Amino acid sequence: MSKIHRIFITIFLFPALLVMGCSKDNTPDNNQPDNSQNKKIPLVMIHGMLASGDTWAKHSTLYIANGYTPEMLYAYDWNTLGGNNADNLEKLDQMVSRALNDHKAEKVHLIGHSAGGGLAYSYMSNADRARKVAAYVHIGSSAQSTLPGPDKNIPVLNIYSKADKIVNGADIPGAQNAVFENLDHYEVATDVSTFESIYSFLNEGKKPARLQAVKTTSPTIAGRVVTLGENKPEKDVTVRIFRANPADGTPAGAALATLQPDEEGYFR
Question: Rounded to whole angstroms, how far apart are CA atoms 139 and 172?
């Protein structure tokens, strides 16, 4: 059986990477994104079952449009196919510690979608690890009866949708619960409306100034090649970038770039 690869374009793992997309603010042009709050608080985001870091691509463009830097955004790829949970937690803790060290911060903001929410709760069940988390966002994930952590004092935003056919969400006692009507299981982690809720929660109630990505004329393309589900890095592949035919999405013309992933599967 041939290997299945998932290639995703990350906009949050590389400091030099610029954001692609159209620009249209939801506020007057002179209302600039807020750069004053949480500049020392990085975000660590955990995807769900059979997913990978590209879950957070759209929201990450919006964080950057609202004053976050790409360096502040960390996507944790983990083995969702029966991997060793202790190993997953240890590697998550390594990423959290790296984020704290990179930004000279005391705590991170943690976000978990679907099965990633269960992993996040397991992570925070340890007192030492829980102390590294300033606030947590639980998205489209299993219902919980309490706030996370031994002391049950970590602020939580719990997002779920009545239209989610994969996970039946429910209110978490003591959390800020945001219930949506028509978002599916993946949309709860990617829709603009949930970004608004998350941004406001992490920024002391302040609304985002922009709800679309910032346009750039010189984007940098970067990403990672991983196996589906396990998220095991693949280095022995070649990545070719093509301009897409707008009519059907097929490659148009010769490759614009040919890239070779490194030992961890990253390319740029």
Answer: 12
User: 122 is written with which tokens?
Assistant: 């397991």
pTM for this predicted structure: 0.84
Tell me which DSSP letter residue 48 carries.
-
Residue 106: alpha-carbon gap to chain centroid: 20
Give the distance between the most distant pair of CA atoms in the chain. Answer: 58
Q: How far apart are CA 35 and CA 38, in angstroms?
A: 8
- 134 by Cβ neighbours in 10 Å (0-12 / 13-18 / 19+) ranks as middle
Query: Residue 75: enclosing H or E segment and its boundaries?
Result: strand 73-76
- Distance, in Å, from the CA atom of 140 to the CA atom of 123, rounded to the nearest integer, reads 18
pLDDT in tens, 243-254: 999 999 999 999
Burial of 248 (0-12, 13-18, 19+ CB in 10 A): exposed
Query: Residue 14 and residue 2: Cα distance in Å, rounded?
Result: 30
Number of alpha helices (DSSP H) and beta strands (DSSP E) in the chain: 5, 11
Q: Is 207 helix (H, G, I), strand (E, B) or coil?
A: coil
